[in-house]
């Protein structure tokens, strides 16, 4: 199917560059953590109200919903933008760096929010010729994978029910002007696991009188590395990583308890379940060998993010109109997670990646969640144009 994308959208998006930068830098100076996005939500709600949208606040605690009604009946498109920051001390040295100690927009959500306001501004200016409606979902708490579920529980997918859903993520490791648009699985599920190994404390000089939880944990962690490499089909992506460990109280005491935590990432539920089964086998076997015990708690954060193939093709056509066909790639999958997956589990749609690599005078780009993370702000009008075009063309065609 050919695209009927209106080039005027891209021109108008570029013309609002100054406003996009102002929004983004204001948000960057004032980062707020998950479910604490009160100032951000106020800025968003006020801006949407000025555009004449119907605005709902407090959705999923600190989420904002704006509804733009077109001039005639039609379907409903949901556009989602996350708003939260991270508990990181910023080290960029930017003139607009975070003014809040220990908090930083280190993943681009400030740009996502600015892009969302830009799309709302652009589509509101074309409201008289727009069929259907656009539901703008400004979401809290993506970084802890709780915001999407909270907004769903508060009815974001009801009255009106969206027919399609779209979102994006700027990406500092991909060049500006490049996009990744992929049908099917794109990003992985995410689980957090917490393990407690319990042995028996003793004097460090008399280890035979105790059960050393540190030694047991060391063996268990080593054996965990074989779960993916020896139990999972090599063609099935999976990651099992340990990120935290603590135990012991003194240099001359055999530790009675060790706690450690990590993350599990998969693209398939059967693979996820098999890995969890193997984890129990490893902990049970190692602890039995040493006379220790274990407790394993797994908290589910986000399902795999799976794009509807037809929706992905729709986004690909619009992105190609703006960036050029050669600039739109299909993949690869990444083992990071994103709770936009909760929306796409319920509504057909597409989440895509837009390059935002900054020019750092020959230095390599900083990855997401780095204290030196930064983006090239030229990505923002591109994101505005693509999402505005994706929404508008879907509403006009009433199909992909």
Please, could you describe this protein's structure?
- The protein is of the alpha/beta class and 400 residues long.
- The chain folds into 2 domains: 7-185 and 304-397, 3-Layer(aba) Sandwich (Aminopeptidase); 190-302, Alpha-Beta Plaits.
- Helix content is 34%, strand content 26%.
- The protein is built from 10 helices and 16 strands.
- Strands 1-2-4-3-5-16-6-15 form an 8-stranded mixed beta sheet, sandwiched between helices. It has a 4-stranded antiparallel beta sheet with strand order 10-12-8-13, with helices on one face.
- The relative contact order is 0.20.
Offer a quick outline of the entry:
34% of the residues lie in helices and 26% in strands. It is α/β, with parallel strands linked by helices and 400 residues long.
Descriptive terms for the model:
400 residues, alpha/beta, Aminopeptidase, Alpha-Beta Plaits, 2 domains, eight-stranded mixed sheet, four-stranded antiparallel sheet, 16 strands, 34% helix
Please state the structural category. Answer: alpha/beta
β content, as a range? 25-35%
The mean pLDDT is 96
CATH-assigned fold name of the largest domain: Aminopeptidase
Q: List segments where confidence is low: pLDDT < 50 over at least 5 consecutive residues.
A: none
Number of helices: 10
Strand line-up across the major sheet: 1-2-4-3-5-16-6-15
Largest sheet: 8 strands, mixed
């Amino acid at each position: 199917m050919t695209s009927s994308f209106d080039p005027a959208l891209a021109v108008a998006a570029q013309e609002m560059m100054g406003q996009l930068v102002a929004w983004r830098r204001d948000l960057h100076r004032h980062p707020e953590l998950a479910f604490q996005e009160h100032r951000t939500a106020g800025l968003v709600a006020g801006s949407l109200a000025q555009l004449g949208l119907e605005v709902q606040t407090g959705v999923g605690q600190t989420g904002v919903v704006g509804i733009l009604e077109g001039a005639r009946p039609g379907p409903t498109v949901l556009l989602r933008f996350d708003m939260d920051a991270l508990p990181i001390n910023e080290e960029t040295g930017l003139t607009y760096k975070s003014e809040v100690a220990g908090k930083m927009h280190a993943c681009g959500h400030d740009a996502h929010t600015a892009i969302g306001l830009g799309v709302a501004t652009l589509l509101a200016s074309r409201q008289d010729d727009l069929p259907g409606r656009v539901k703008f979902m400004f979401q809290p708490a993506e970084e802890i994978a709780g915001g999407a579920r909270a907004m769903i529980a508060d009815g974001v997918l009801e009255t009106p029910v969206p027919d399609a859903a779209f979102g994006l993520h700027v990406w500092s490791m991909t060049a500006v002007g490049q996009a990744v648009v992929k049908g099917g699985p794109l990003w992985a599920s995410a689980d957090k696991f917490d393990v407690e190994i319990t042995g028996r404390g003793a004097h460090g000089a008399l280890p035979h009188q105790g059960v050393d939880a540190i030694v047991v944990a060391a063996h268990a962690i080593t054996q965990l590395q074989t779960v993916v490499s020896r139990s999972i089909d090599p063609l099935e992506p999976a990651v099992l990583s340990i990120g935290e460990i603590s135990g012991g109280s003194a240099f001359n005491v055999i530790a009675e308890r060790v706690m450690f935590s990590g993350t599990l990432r998969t693209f398939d539920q059967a693979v996820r379940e098999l890995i969890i089964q193997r984890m129990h086998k490893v902990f049970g076997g190692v602890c039995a060998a040493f006379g220790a015990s274990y407790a394993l708690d797994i908290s589910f954060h986000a399902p795999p993010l799976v794009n509807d193939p037809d929706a992905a093709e729709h986004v690909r056509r619009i992105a190609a109109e703006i960036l050029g066909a050669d600039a739109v790639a299909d993949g690869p999958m990444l083992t990071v997670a994103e709770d936009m997956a909760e929306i796409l589990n319920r509504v057909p749609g597409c989440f895509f990646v837009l390059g935002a690599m900054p020019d750092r005078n020959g230095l390599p780009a900083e990855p997401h969640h780095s204290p030196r993370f930064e983006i090239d702000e030229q990505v923002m009008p591109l994101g505005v144009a693509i999402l505005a075009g994706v929404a508008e063309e879907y509403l006009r065609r009433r199909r992909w």
